[in-house]
Amino acid sequence: MRLNHFTDFSMRVLMYLNKKNNADSSSLDELAERFSISRNHLVKVVQFLSNNGLVLTKRGKNGGILISEKATQMGLGDLINLLEQDESPVISCIAKPCVFSSHDCKLKSFLDIAYQAFLDSLNKNRLSDLKFENWNSIFSP
């Protein structure tokens, strides 16, 4: 299974904001620089995260981006599932019609079960469980 770029970028933002622990808000420019990601991509990421209550945003001079309590309480599997934004993330028998769909093919069912097991396994952890040996180097200028 492969996660999309949007999920990757979103998780980076959430991990970074969580580690900052609301000590200081972050800006889009700061995040873009830290992760070498286009500011335009991050605008979409932060807007999605904000619309889903995972980050709090405030405009203006004292504005910025902070992680929400909802994001810190969610299991990683639930976060990944939300970020993937796909009802059938592993395989879709409808998107490109499959000749086997009317012949009781079990592949989609097996893959859906495996994906759910993947999410269940990730849900045993939260953002706070993600540890980094050299985390201070991320915050150094």
Automatic annotation (TrEMBL):
<dbReference type="GO" id="GO:0003700">
    <property type="term" value="F:DNA-binding transcription factor activity"/>
</dbReference>
<dbReference type="GO" id="GO:0005829">
    <property type="term" value="C:cytosol"/>
</dbReference>
<dbReference type="InterPro" id="IPR036388">
    <property type="entry name" value="WH-like_DNA-bd_sf"/>
</dbReference>
<dbReference type="InterPro" id="IPR036390">
    <property type="entry name" value="WH_DNA-bd_sf"/>
</dbReference>
<dbReference type="InterPro" id="IPR030489">
    <property type="entry name" value="TR_Rrf2-type_CS"/>
</dbReference>
<protein>
    <submittedName>
        <fullName>Transcriptional regulator, BadM/Rrf2 family</fullName>
    </submittedName>
</protein>
<keyword id="KW-0238">DNA-binding</keyword>
<dbReference type="Pfam" id="PF02082">
    <property type="entry name" value="Rrf2"/>
</dbReference>
<dbReference type="InterPro" id="IPR000944">
    <property type="entry name" value="Tscrpt_reg_Rrf2"/>
</dbReference>
<dbReference type="GO" id="GO:0003677">
    <property type="term" value="F:DNA binding"/>
</dbReference>
